[in-house]
Amino acid sequence: MLDLYGVKVASRLLLGTARYPSPSVLAEAVKRSATEIVTVSLRREAAGGRSGGAFFEMIRQLGVRVLPNTAGCHGVSEAVLTAKMAREVFQTNWIKLEVIGNHDTLQPDVFALVEAARILTSEGFEVFPYTTDDLVVAERLMEAGCKVLMPWCAPIGTAAGPLNPSALRSIRAHFPEMPLIVDAGIGRPSHAATVMELGFDAVLLNTAVAGARDPGIMAEAFAGAIDAGRQAFNAGLLEPRDMAVPSTPVIGKAVFA
Ligand SMILES: CC(=O)[C@@H](O)[C@H](O)COP(=O)(O)O
């Protein structure tokens, strides 16, 4: 089981709720993914025209835990205020903290992120920071009180997959005990399996499922890939090697009478 701020979950897939063609398609994707956690933006543009209260009510009816997020926030005070509003609306101390620093790449402003994380943890929030794969920033976020980290593997919505596997490997190695969730940029089930094989604890994704021709089937495909990647990691993967090694060892020569 994955332990996130004392909450144990079996599913290692966290799903975003934006950009689905309709609320019913979103509900189907959530069901087929078997996710136990969905992330919801307070500043969202609603699926199928539903907004505000109606949308949040629909999310509640899905019976999964809500991880509100500060998507679209560009500064410390905006992110902190949005987190406080989210706590009121969803009655949870959990917050996925996003502070965007660049319009083109949607790259996190890591300086503002650390500052906002420090303020929010001191006010009792349990912060899930959307960050880069930078080790020093990860260290600062830990010092700010974060007990989960969410490094990107590529910019949000690009579906590019792990652009820098060695940085991901390194962050995993430096924080062996910390729950690490790869957030953003996953485009295919094989990308999700790859980061799980690297030893990440979970994956958060949105665009690859919401933008699929059939989001329900895609959600199921991601769930399977994440389980497979986790199982492979636990089973112990072989390191690639340069020299061939016969998979069928032979002793002497065959003798035919
Ligand atoms: C929904 C959400 O929180 C996104 O901001 C998240 O970062 C997912 O990114 P992708 O849409 O690239 O999967």
Automatic annotation (TrEMBL):
Cellular location(s): Cytoplasm
Active-site residues, as the UniProt record annotates them: K96
GO terms of molecular function: thiazole synthase activity
Transferase among keywords: yes
UniProt: 1-deoxy-D-xylulose 5-phosphate binding residues: G157, A184, G185, N206, T207
Keyword Transferase in annotation: yes
Domain Thiazole synthase ThiG: 4-249
Pathway of action: Cofactor biosynthesis; thiamine diphosphate biosynthesis
Entry's Gene Ontology cellular component terms: cytoplasm
Enzyme Commission number(s) from the entry: 2.8.1.10
InterPro entries membership: Aldolase_TIM (IPR013785), Thiazole_synthase_ThiG (IPR033983), ThiG (IPR008867)
Keywords per UniProt: Cytoplasm, Schiff base, Thiamine biosynthesis, Transferase
Catalysed reaction equations from the record: [ThiS sulfur-carrier protein]-C-terminal-Gly-aminoethanethioate + 2-iminoacetate + 1-deoxy-D-xylulose 5-phosphate = [ThiS sulfur-carrier protein]-C-terminal Gly-Gly + 2-[(2R,5Z)-2-carboxy-4-methylthiazol-5(2H)-ylidene]ethyl phosphate + 2 H2O + H(+)
GO annotation (BP), single: thiamine diphosphate biosynthetic process
Enzyme class: transferase
Function: Catalyzes the rearrangement of 1-deoxy-D-xylulose 5-phosphate (DXP) to produce the thiazole phosphate moiety of thiamine. Sulfur is provided by the thiocarboxylate moiety of the carrier protein ThiS. In vitro, sulfur can be provided by H(2)S.
Record-stated family: Belongs to the ThiG family.
Assembly and interaction partners: Homotetramer. Forms heterodimers with either ThiH or ThiS.
Protein's recorded name: Thiazole synthase
Gene name of the record: thiG
